[in-house]
DNA sequence: GATTTATCTGTAACCGGTTACATGAAACCG
DNA sequence: CGGTTTCATGTAACCGGTTACAGATAAATC
């Protein structure tokens, strides 16, 4: 492995000059610079990241704290893959790498990892429930961005979808399709998306001049079984809803199934809309009307927010990024002007 | 940030002693050790990973080379999430971290990243097509393990599922259900799973004493559309197959859809089995009979293979790991003894 | 031509660990 | 009891970069 000293000797210059060629090329004569670069190419020189980190305290690495939070080990992010691609791409364009942090342990584990590796920042992916690790980190002044979960902290911010707006769009869409008794299967209230989507549901009904009936609001768990159970409760009501907005696609699919099992037609008797546009949404029959998020945008926005904080150590954290959510109309919401 | 020298001064010992407390505790008196540990806890000391890496050439980090390979940017790993969990868990138990390598660029990009960060090894995730980057890395002597793709190299190995066995099990299952005209929608032949699953199909037919008709073998692309198109070709044959083994679930779902669109009953007229057990497999109706892989096992096996190579620098690479594939019987293969 | 200024380069300390080797004290031995 | 081992510890070089500061040279100024 060629080092900076090898290059220096070979070119008859000092190590400082070689270092400058890579970090501050303008501070060096053109000939010197080119000679050094030639030698570097010849020797296959690659600067050592640890050495640089040791000297500068900057690692050009950001941690990925990816925990399952409180929804248990079975929790899966609805689009981890696109998220990671977006994150990785945006980060690597700016010369940053992603280091996956080992899960959980104690609440300070992440903070220790940050110190141990001189991480420049960390991004949190979890299920949206409060996590002491994030809170600790955010308070400690390390640049943090979390996904789908609000944080406070001088150098902490978050990116999320327009959950309320998307939910409202779904509800408005069901209304446009002629439905009036619109229920919702909400997500767990302690999750940010769960709470926001419910808020969007309520706001949309209010804006449409429809009453919010509390028996039309049942809380699910974001999983298939929860959606199924919730739907059964809704169908057992005296005045059965003619449409259901489920705050997650798995729940929506569970709801559709429960309706079909009850001998009802979907969307004839009850229309259904979901949220997330997971892969199965387009594969089940009838295909699920849902709200899609800007998947790659999440990663890109997180990277951008993080880098802006890293670049300017004493700037305040940028405001939260709210990505647009887009209604995807398929079959479960029924044909236009039906109902 | 407390350093080893701070601890040394505070305890009245030398830096070497402090270092030994952490790396070779037995080489130090119990009292000294405890005093140092106490001071470390008190000061919140965390050893610096870059400094250690610089001195030892070992980073305790393995790279994750995650490329889309030749199946294009739309390619998604069927269970990236479980894979990463398995990998991360197994690695972190042994004190290793995962560094996500920036995609592609040139073929030597990965090798440079390895050198730059003193990575101890790298794991490759791609779509199973030949990738020069992996070949280069494997040849260079860096410990490598790839997923679902054979590699050769003194310190390179791979982990894969029993693709042939799983495919054979699916075919045998269709046969048991009374089907005799069993076709296959194969994956791209240049991918390892594609080739192996086809081999398993052929082997199973041979073992059952059934002829392999070449018109019953059509190649798909692992995607929905490919499965759909392939099924249409199969259904147009003079002697229509009464069962189809698709080498991937998306193709299988496409095939089911094509059959339904052609007015056929699934599984009544044609039974279908897939491979991978992707999430939608259990969500579509009729639910898809398929072959499930040991998802978490992939990550764990990759980590184990990698670590064994790292621990013993001049041992040969361990033999490939072949994880069991398990038949998951659902609805598309029909009821027992039907047909 | 002397003085100031700008530009480029070199020297050496430093980042925070590891480790070969030296040292001194205590334990062991015949 | 002198000599050898053993064991715990210390000294100092080293890993591969960065960077403050100083020095040298050339250009600009008067």
UniProtKB/TrEMBL annotation, chains A, B:
- Keyword terms: DNA-binding, Transcription, Transcription regulation
Report the transmembrane regions from the record. none
Q: Which Pfam families does the entry link to?
A: LacI (PF00356), Peripla_BP_3 (PF13377)
Classification via CDD domains: HTH_LacI, PBP1_LacI_sugar_binding-like
Q: Quote the PROSITE patterns the UniProt record gives.
A: HTH_LACI_2
Q: Does the keyword Transcription regulation apply?
A: yes
* Keyword Repeat among UniProt keywords: no
Q: Which residues form the HTH lacI-type domain?
A: 2-56
Name by which UniProt lists this protein: LacI family transcriptional regulator
Originating organism = Streptosporangium pseudovulgare
